[in-house]
Every structure is written in C-alpha cells, then in structure tokens.
Amino acid sequence: MVWALSVRRCIYLKGSLWAKPQNIYKGVGIRPEHLNDDCRGRILDKLYSFGLTEIFVTVALAAAKYFGVEMSSD
User: Fold this and answer.
1) DSSP 3-state assignment of 68?
2) How many other C-beta atoms can be found within 10 angstroms of the C-beta atom of residue 43?
C-alpha cells in the first residue's frame, strides 16, 4: 500500500493492487465485491485527511523496529 501512495499516478489505474483479495479477508466478513470504487475512494479520502506523510513515517518506523534496523541522527 505504501508503494502505491508514493507513486504519482491515479490509484484506480493500479488494478492489480485490488485484484488479490481471495483469502486475505477470510473470516472477517469482507468479500471481494465489498471492495468497490466507492469503498476505495472513502479509504483514500480518510488516508489523505489523516496525512500520508504521517502514515508513511509510522509504517516505516514500525518496519525498522520490527526488522531491527539501527537508526541514528548523526
């Protein structure tokens, strides 16, 4: 998802991002037909209103911590 947000291209042109929902939502009540254009638009609006930079930094820091990446400000 982060990769898609960093590309300056219309997200709806990235159909392959949404084409793999077969089993990843199994058990949570989300079916592939629930992921329509309206739903995607609402999700993207919420991400934008929260702040894409904040989301990216949060995910990047969590990934760095998970993988044990050393960080310094030097």
Assistant:
1) coil
2) 13
